[in-house]
Amino acid sequence: METYVSNSNQEFIILDKVGKSCTIQFLKTGSVRKANIDNLRDGKVKDLYAITCYGKGFLGDFDKPVYWKKSKDLWRNMLKRCYCEADKHGYFHKGTTVSPRWLCFANFLNDLPKLENFGGWLKGNPKFNLDKDFKIKGCNIYSLDTCQFILEGLN
After folding, report:
1. Which residues contact 21 (CB under 8 A, 6 or more apart)?
2. What is the pTM of this model?
């Protein structure tokens, strides 16, 4: 099979083609997705499972609720605090991590509504922060089981 390369330098193969619709597989992650042949020719396909955020996170495949952009900013900032050495306010040298499930933005986005005070965070007034150690004192992992939204003044 012939190997192709996207604009983001991700190698893939075409598994199937019906009309203008193709099924492709990315070689590095093995992920499979549908794509339009015109987008393939232009290199406009991305591997949603390739690590693209602070050397740890990847997008995954997700629907876009109205709050997805706000959630993506929250997710990126969480990863930055844990995995970016240059973040002066972060946890890079303190051993704080993100659960493997939440390294995938699609999972994070799906889990957010399950967190305590999600509605308050969504409204934004007053301001709520994602917190990992209010529920479990001294906790150093961001996960569905350890996190909740708390008022900014309590954080």
Report:
1. 34, 35, 36, 37
2. 0.90
Question: Whole-angstrom Cα distance, residue 110 to residue 13?
Answer: 30
Angle at 74 (CA atoms; ends 71, 77), nearest 5 degrees: 150
In 3-state terms, what secondary structure has residue 152? helix
User: pLDDT in tens for each of the 155 residues of the chain?
Assistant: 789 999 999 999 999 999 999 999 999 999 999 999 999 989 899 999 999 999 999 999 999 999 999 999 999 999 999 999 888 777 777 889 999 999 999 999 999 999 999 999 999 989 999 999 999 998 999 999 999 999 988 87
Residue 82 burial class via C-beta count within 10 angstroms: exposed 0-12, middle 13-18, buried 19 and up: buried
The structure tokens listed for 90 are 């972060």
